UniProtKB/TrEMBL annotation:
Coiled coil: none annotated. Signal peptide: none annotated. PANTHER family: BLOC-1 RELATED COMPLEX SUBUNIT 6. This is BORCS6 domain-containing protein. One of its GO terms (biological process) is lysosome localization. Residues 89-187 form the BLOC-1-related complex subunit 6 C-terminal helix domain.
Amino acid sequence: MVHLAKEKSSQMASGGERRAASRTHSMPNTRLRTENEMNNNPSTSRDTQHTFVVEDLERRIRDSARIGSPSSTPASEGSRRGSVPGSLTPDPLVLVSLESSARTISANLDVLLRDLRGSLHGMSDLTVEASECYSDAISSTCDSVDAVIKNTYAMLAKVEELNEAMVGVKRLAQQVKDIKRVVDLFESHFTMIKNNS
């Protein structure tokens, strides 16, 4: 885009000539000429005016407007598409190769799915068998524990019966002790009588 710079007016002593200064923003092939260079008279005065000269200004403005307008893009694309040669037609051999590769991949996928299905069935059967074995083991363990508990209760009952039966044995043991004491008394008495005679 070309932007016109603001104009500076200055009164010169030679006739008050008015010059217009135009500036371009980021345009190639731009030449900068100063008034001092044109007159071959260097000067450092503040009244020095810089002039920017742009070649083919009108053409550049049209080009920039054409590039910036969005309506130019579809037309250019259409022209490019129209200018595309027919060399982009797909090769039949490539299509055949792609079809063959697709069939091979499909067959391999079928085999893979079949093997996967068989493996899943096998794992399911093993899982069921393991569950059944675990259930049988748990059932057997429960039965064994129940039998042990019943036997323990039976043994405790027998022990209680034995304790009740041992009550008479204690009484009998006390009687035996009493008899032994009486026998000892008789023996000592007979010994004394024998010694006196």
